Amino acid sequence: MTDDGARTVRAGRRTVEIHRPDKVLFPGAGGAGEYTKGDLADYHRAVAPFMLPHLRGRPLMLDRRPDGIGGPTFMQKNTPDGYPEWITRVEVAKEGGTVRHTVCDDTATLLYLVDQASITLHRWLSRADGPGGVDRPDRLVFDLDPPDDDFAAVREAARLLGELLDELNLPSALMTTGSRGLHVIVPLSGHHDFDDVRAFAREVADVLAAAHPDRLTTAARKKDRGDRLYLDIQRNAYAQTAVAPYTVRALPGAPVATPVSWDQLDDPDLHARRWTVADAVEQARTDPWAGLLSRGRALGPARRRLRALRG
């Protein structure tokens, strides 16, 4: 501890100060665990080897809660001038100008963001250092969004989507969102632009919803969904983001968006908030994705298979 109560944490060649480490960010109400900023620093330091491969090179949007999850929310895209020079930035185009996003390339940056009370890290689906830069995503994401907390519907939708992606010869990975649903992630070659990727995702979602119209929908408006699960493909657009693997959600108990294997979908104890900062590192050590995301595919062959299926 420093004289002003800050805690100094070693991260590789750097040291990072965690100010007010005893500040409660997650109150322990309703039986949920209580977690302080210091607890979050400990979690991120432990999970960094598993989390950083999903963050490096990617522009971030930060969900900051300086007064904890019950206080004001700051969704930060632009990197403030006061951030240390050693933190990576990337300038990306937006309508009428540019945005200078923070990029988390190392453990020190991850801890610095924790000190800034960045609870949830939302990442781009493209990398600034990827084959086509930020304009070419190397991830496609389907967000399985149920109308309520019925996880059985999420489980069923994931199985149906996974089977369809298998038919298209596309590898896929599964992740709890830490909120209500699951993300199904497809690794891409990085040679398609966002419009092309989103159009393909829309085709897949349309095929699945047409086959199961009583259970699934692609309707963007809630009033049009009824009690059906929403196949959300909207994150597959330029400047949109998705929650990063192993990031913490700003919800009671500090649930974590956690990668899982497809076999774990059959676990009756699985639900969207199954893991928290207390045990997500143990799940990370099992390597549930086991190299899946290094098998990026081009969409041409999958699109031809999909259109053949549509007849």
From TrEMBL:
Domain of life: Bacteria
Entries under InterPro entries matching the protein: LigD_pol_dom (IPR014145), NHEJ_LigD (IPR052171)
GO MF, one annotated term: DNA ligase (ATP) activity
Keywords tagged on the record: Ligase
Keyword Ligase among UniProt keywords: yes
Enzyme Commission code(s) on record: 6.5.1.1
Cited Pfam families: LigD_Prim-Pol (PF21686)
Record-linked NCBIfam families: ligD_pol
PANTHER family reported for this sequence: BIFUNCTIONAL NON-HOMOLOGOUS END JOINING PROTEIN LIGD
Protein name: Bifunctional non-homologous end joining protein LigD
Organism: Streptomyces griseomycini
